[in-house]
């Protein structure tokens, strides 16, 4: 199958319009429509349905996008960097991932990094921001995706902002169409993070401003433990949607947005000044993480706001 047709398909899906996609790709709209028709003929399925605003994916189209976007991106990266000194890096790279971001980011990011650094191996540590910062300072982790921290030993570049939601068990009455005020959410039995960074800081600051007490039943820095307790119907939790999308889709959890105020966590890429990697490699690692996050946000797989600006280069930090 012609991979160009798959690229055209993905662009149409991103733009939601064949006309807009043709403009971005720099090809005539009839030619793009013809390529899409050939792809649908090859597969024997309809990939889009027409709407007043353009086109939207069919169920079969959604499945194709989910299964092809990552591999195509990794193939492009592998070809792009095949002759670069970056591609010849031959060592183990230590990555840290905020546990709330693992489900949405781990697989596509490792796929892209493997394509850029085909001779490297990767070790992945997950945890809270505090745990990952400590691991970076000890040299156990090279680069991490974390919440912001007020630590001058850590170079941090923000990537995205995403709102928290209230999640409950399958028997809860939470409704995505009916946001819950923060003061009502904290009156429910909650499981909250032990760590004071990230989500823990958001909850503490919002509670202080609202002059309320958070009614927590238990604390843990394990997102998996949080989700298990919520799934069992024992407690509620405040988490980003990306951390529990799978459980929600499977009917094991329900959710509703939080309002008055909206709680927004920020995530970025971080390293220390002692990072033992060549400058070109450091820049490429950060750029790959940034580009992967941007692609996930643009595709809708990560429901957040991409806020990164400029390049990531710890070697140039003060």
UniProtKB/TrEMBL annotation:
User: What domain of life?
Assistant: Bacteria
The residue ranges of the HTH lysR-type domain are 1-58
Positions of transmembrane segments: none
UniProt keyword annotations, A-Z:
Activator, DNA-binding, Transcription, Transcription regulation
Q: Which family does it belong to?
A: Belongs to the LysR transcriptional regulatory family.
What's the protein called, per UniProt?
LysR family transcriptional regulator
């Amino acid at each position: 199958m012609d991979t160009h047709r798959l690229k055209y398909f993905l662009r149409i899906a991103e733009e939601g319009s064949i006309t807009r996609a043709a403009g971005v790709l720099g090809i005539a709209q009839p030619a793009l429509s013809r390529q899409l028709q050939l792809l649908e003929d090859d597969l024997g399925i309809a990939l889009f349905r027409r709407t007043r605003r353009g086109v939207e994916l069919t169920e079969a189209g959604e499945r194709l996008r989910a299964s092809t976007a990552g591999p195509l991106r990794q193939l492009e990266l592998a070809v792009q960097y095949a002759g670069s000194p970056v591609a010849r890096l031959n060592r183990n790279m230590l990555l840290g991932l905020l546990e709330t971001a693992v489900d949405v980011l781990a697989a596509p990011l490792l796929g892209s990094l493997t394509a850029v650094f085909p001779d490297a191996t990767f070790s992945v540590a997950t945890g809270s921001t505090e745990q990952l910062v400590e691991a970076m300072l000890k040299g156990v982790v090279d680069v991490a995706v974390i919440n912001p921290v007020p630590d001058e030993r850590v170079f941090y570049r923000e990537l995205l902002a995403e709102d928290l939601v209230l999640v409950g068990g399958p028997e809860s009455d939470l409704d995505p169409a009916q946001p819950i005020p923060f003061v009502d959410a904290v009156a429910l039995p909650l499981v909250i993070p032990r760590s004071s960074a990230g989500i823990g800081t958001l909850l503490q600051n919002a509670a202080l401003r609202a002059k309320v007490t958070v009614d927590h039943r238990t604390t843990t820095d394990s997102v998996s433990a949080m989700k298990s307790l919520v799934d069992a119907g024992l407690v509620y939790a405040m988490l980003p949607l990306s951390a529990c999308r799978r459980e929600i889709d499977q009917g094991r959890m329900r959710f509703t947005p939080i309002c008055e105020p909206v709680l927004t966590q920020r995530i970025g890429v971080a390293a220390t000044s002692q990072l033992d990697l060549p400058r070109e490699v450091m820049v490429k690692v950060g750029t790959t993480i940034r580009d992967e996050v941007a692609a996930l946000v643009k595709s809708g797989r990560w429901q957040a706001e991409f806020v990164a600006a400029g390049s990531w280069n710890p070697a140039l930090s003060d």
